[in-house]
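Final report, Chapter 2: Outcomes

The project's central promise was a pipeline that accepts a single protein chain and returns its three-dimensional structure in a standardized token representation, suitable for archiving and comparison. That pipeline is now operational. To close this chapter, we reproduce one record exactly as it appears in the project archive, with the input sequence first and the structure output second.
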Amino acid sequence: MKHTILLLLLMALLVGCSSPTMGTKGTSDTVQGIIENRRTDDLRVLFRSEREISRMEKQQVCMVRSSSDKEEIYVKNGLLLPEVIMAYRGRPYDGQVKVISRDRIIQTSLFRYDPTEQASMIVLPGDLVFIQARQ
């Protein structure tokens, strides 16, 4: 974990040195700079520690977060997003959902609800699922 934190800090410093706006707008700019300017073998470590992700993978769970609420859902070797949402909420969700996996970030549409869109998304152990609250 110390190695990951040091690496992320070093990457943020390097990105900050190459961009005059880095570091002036906060953490999201640091993550944005890393995504834009650096190769990343695991996108999840930009949001959670390597140790936490490793633990979730071993326990075959994903993290689901909605506003201030957070829960781990057992996904075994992978579940479709609607199954994860049902396990978390007990009913379908027609708002935006973001899934951050090792090598991809996918999200459902903000403007239209299409259940087939969710049905094509697979959530794997260690993935981070963010259910966006409606405004």
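Archive annotation: The chain has two domains: 2-39, 51-131.
This record, like all others produced under the grant, will remain available to the consortium after the project formally closes.
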